[in-house]
Fold this protein.
Amino acid sequence: MTCDPLSLVNEGVRGLTPYQPGKPIEELERELGLSHIIKLASNESPLGPSPKARAMALVGLDELSRYPDGSGTDLRAALADIHAVAGECLTLGNGSNDVLELIARLFVSSEHEVVFAEHAFAVYPLVTRAMGARAVEVPARDRGHDLAAMADAISERTRLVFIANPNNPTGTWNDAEALEDFLSAVPEDVIVVVDQAYAEYVDEPNYPDCITWLARYPNLIVTRTFSKAHGLAGLRIGYGVSSAGIADLLNRVRQPFNVNSLALAAAHASLEDDEHLQRSTGINRSGLVQLRAGFDAMGIEYIPSVANFLCFAVPGDAG
């Protein structure tokens, strides 16, 4: 008896390849015979988590035999207070990637299309094709989102649009006016996801906090993460903010206990340490200035970034 599992899955999954994250430092040290490696592959915080977050995670070790709070009550209350929304508008995830996948599972099937930009986050096509939907990749403009072209790409089959702001991996961004013009042009039956994983790093006066727009755009979902500026990538915790109706539906398909107790405790404590967050983003701003000055001096082409990474042209051929 034989079984061909590939023939049993939906067509979209057949063409997928697993996401390839940056290798762990320990593996690279063994592979290359090196003893000191600085990892830049995953846009992680060099400062790590807040001391308050570390302390609360350690306290949580005493309760590892118990399941976490499946609703994340305390963390949702803290986030609701920070963002001035009702707790019912929040969906917690095992990283914001989890929330992106929940959104695709909830709204997308094989009869739908999902629109996103060229050079956008690799997870968007993954979750789209995993659901059997058609991925509509819109060519970039100036290496960023061409929102006008993305609006034109929306068809009767479009159910979902992903926008990364700032964009990973180019570091480009769209201002409030451009995003509002786009949202105003999108039909009400198309869900728009604005992925703001790197929002804390942005120091631009016209950069929008899209969470404040939810009352005006009921088809809008905003995702955030604790992996970047908060330095909690290893604990995997993020969240989505939307209308209460959308959040209710997302929580219906969310796995029970999808966020572990250490992540809940550390994230809550991290929200209470604004000094650490400001230090993290401040060091990042200084680093961007230093890198831009160095690249300018060496004549190396780069894409201006507002995030915690910088995309630049490496002279010579790969090899």
The chain is about 35% helix and 15% strand. The chain has a mean pLDDT of 95. The first strand starts at residue 90 and ends at 93.
